[in-house]
Amino acid sequence: MNNLDWNEFRQVVSDYVGVDADEITRDTDVFDDLYLDSLGLFGLGSHITDTYKLNVALSLVASISRVGEFFDLLNEKGTPIEG
């Protein structure tokens, strides 16, 4: 299990999507509130996993719709990138 910081995570999401970090909550919908489509979600996923140097299965990323779910997924299933 990883120990990511929620406020830092929100800032990483904010930097990618251009929405103020204070407006991002665990219940923020990545599609309706952040205006991402499925490709945008994978782009966000790539940005976040590169930032934190974690791997996570794309099939798991495809199943999320809320920022809090993404945060939990990385904390629970993200594995460190070797090298």
From TrEMBL:
InterPro entries assigned to the protein according to its UniProt record, in alphabetical order: ACP-like_sf, PP-bd_ACP
Occurrences of domain Carrier (ranges):
3-78
The UniProt entry, under Pfam families, shows:
PP-binding (PF00550)
Taxonomically, which superkingdom? Bacteria
| Name listed for the protein in its UniProt record | Phosphopantetheine-binding protein
The protein's organism comes out as Ruminococcus albus (strain ATCC 27210 / DSM 20455 / JCM 14654 / NCDO 2250 / 7)
